[in-house]
Amino acid sequence: MPIFEIVFYAFSLVMLGAAVMVITVRNPVYAALFLVLTFFSAAAVWMLLEVEFLAIILILVYVGAVMVLFLFVVMMLDINVDPLKEGFVRYLPAGIIVALLMAGELLMVVWSKGRFEAGSYPLPAPNPQGYSNTKEVGEVLFTQYLLPFEVAGVILLVAIIAAVALTLRQRPAVHRQNPSLQVRVRRDERIRLVKMKPDSRQDS
Amino acid sequence: MTRMDFLLIAPELWILTMTCVILIVDLYIKEERRGIVHLLGMVTLIFAAIITLRGDFGIDGTNSALAFNGTFIRDQMGDVLKLFSYLVLAIVFIYAKFCLREFRMFRSDFYTLTLEALLGIMLLISANNLVMVYLGLELLALSSYTLVAYDRESKMGSEAAMKYFVLGSMASGMLLYGMSMIYGATGSLDLQEVAAAVGNLSGDNYLLVFGLVFLVVGLAFKLGVVPFHMWIPDVYQGAPVAITLFIASVPKMAAFAMAFRLLQTGLGELHTDWSQMISILAALSIVLGNLAAIAQTNIKRMLAYSTISHMGFVLMGLLPGTASGFGAGMFYVIVYSMMSAAAFGMVILLSARGVEAEKIDDFKGLNQRNSWYAAVMAMVMFSMAGVPVFVGFFAKWLVIAAALETGLVWLAILAVVFSVVGAFYYLRIVKLMYFDEPVTESEINAPVDFRAAISLNGIMMIGLGIFSSSLIAVCMASFGA
Question: Is A107 a member of any domain?
Fold first, then answer.
């Protein structure tokens, strides 16, 4: 079925192109938007493999939440990225050597016999009708991978503690409202009654 | 899920529960009564030790028990390392309480975060699945990053935390990449199944070795061995000394367990491949760690470089891939965490009124100020240098024997030569303490629990040395040797 291949190659090419743009464009907002495009294409490729749940989660979590936060921070902080790129030329030779070495090793692995040849990973059989991705994921998540799932929850707890520990601070100089004290205030704390003698008016 | 699963993981559940309890209790106590948090922390550790010891699951050096579909393993190595983690963390708590009070940083975050880190350490020690290894590691790492930035006013602390975070995340990325390769090649995340699949694999296994390389890189980052050691000196120096004390002691045991699980349990079949990489890492660490430590005038930095060289020695224990080798590595790492705790404890002791005793010169003439503390520090330094009778000597002896067993004579000779080089900077501290005039005459004050802990910790250096055979036997038996 050529439509499968066409869709796959189209989205893969868009994904690769967008990924390259993420690291090459100068404007961080554009980079973030290209990253969104990359995630979308990846989600589309996943759809081809009939893993709808993961594809939708990718869009919901990464595009919907993470990237929006990203854009928010980039726009809020107005970071000038040019000084960050100053060392680029200086570190370029070392970077290129490492990159070439890694690329060479990767190619050796990819082209080594038997692993990534065409046909060594056949397409999975299409799922039967009524097959629920979400249900399948849920089933292994709460049986086979229960412990890792719970530990991931503990990691989130640590993240909360860390965020509070690093940012919560009491500054003595800051004036704050204390509603409980405000409510409990008594009349004589606010009003001072002063007895004065009535003036005798002089102009009449 | 049966009752057995929960019994096996009971120590971890206890620690997690108590962390949450401390988190809530702290909301309801006044600032001046915060000692309660410390007390709760100590109680947590003591009961964790009791729970770990009480469980009888027929575990010995060769038998282990699996829980939660094989994601969690209880074996003797894990139990012994966990018990020593509790012990060292208890010592850390005692030292840190004094230090944090002195620096006006005594908050309950320290206890919750270190206990969460301990949970990460325990899960890492007991991980039997690539996902669990990663999650345990992240739990430990996230808590450590936050702890390094514990002093919010300190610029160096924030910088160190940032460096630690960026490099640590990169290491985690490497580790994950390696794990994905191994999963791709073997089709399983379970370490035993990975081992079985590797054994059945025929032909060239480029993909596996490629994954292994990334795994070793990630491991080396976490252990802090050359050439992936850059973060160690900056983090040790930048973090408040109470935090450095923690980072330099307990997590090392987890790193050793992680190396054992990944390299031996999972990829034992690839022993020839990884032992080459490990031997290079070990040799570089021993050389660079010991040479760079000589040039340091800051004691935290000096101890950081000494950590790097000690981790090189620990790696030597992994080299032969035999039970006795792993036993030697385990003994070394346990001994090292105790030595490290004692050394940083002494730095805390000399720090006074919000100024850390960072300079080596702060140790000048300690003998005239207080001869017992000088003796404790001398014992720690002798032990680190590997002087006979002290426990550090036996640790070094065993790992060098392990290297010889592998036939790596050059590495053994290198290790001995650089131990001698290393002895220079350890003994320099001893010389400063005994033969130089003190720079200040101020009294050294510490609460009674601190004095007891540091004295005990110092005596352990020689006591464990004289009676080293029992601990060595326990370590060896953990691997069935």
Answer: no
Residue A188 — very low, low, confident or very high, per pLDDT cuts 50/70/90?
A: confident
Which residue do the tokens 């001398």 mark?
B378
Find chain A residues with C-beta within 8 A of B145's C-beta.
Answer: 162
Alpha-carbon distance values, B290 to A115, B337, B384, B434 (Å)? 43, 18, 12, 23
pLDDT digits (tens, 9 = 90+) for B63-93: 888 989 889 999 999 999 999 999 999 999 9
pLDDT digits (tens, 9 = 90+) for B181-233: 899 888 889 999 999 988 887 666 778 888 899 999 999 999 999 889 989 99
Answer yes or no: do A161 and B146 touch at CB < 8 A: yes
Residue B364 · residue B433 · CB < 8 Å: yes
Element housing A8 (H / E): helix A2-24
Q: Does residue B240 contact residue B103 with C-beta atoms inside 8 Å?
A: yes
Q: Does ipTM surpass 0.95 in this model?
A: no
Q: Could B109 and A146 be called an inter-chain contact, meaning their C-beta atoms sit closer than 8 Å? A: no
Res A81 pLDDT > 90? no
The helix (H) or strand (E) run that includes residue A2 is helix A2-24
Question: What letter would DSSP give residue A59?
Answer: I
How far off is chain A from B316, nearest CA to CA, in Å? 27
pLDDT band at A1 (very low <50, low <70, confident <90, very high): low
- Going from the C-alpha of B304 to that of each of A8, B230, B231, B314, the distances in angstroms are 51, 10, 10, 15
Select the residue of A105, A151, A166 nearest B210 (Cβ to Cβ): A105
Give me the domain span that covers residue A159. Answer: 132-166
Domain count, chain A: 1
B163 touches chain A (CB under 8 A): no
CA distances B84 to B79, B222, B266, B310, B383, Å, are: 9, 20, 24, 18, 18
- Mean predicted confidence (pLDDT) in B343-364: 85
Q: Find residue B66's DSSP bridge partners.
A: B73
Dump pLDDT digits (tens) for B240-284.
Answer: 999 999 999 999 999 999 999 999 999 988 898 899 999 999 999
Could you tell me which chain B residue has the CA closest to the CA of A113?
Answer: B204
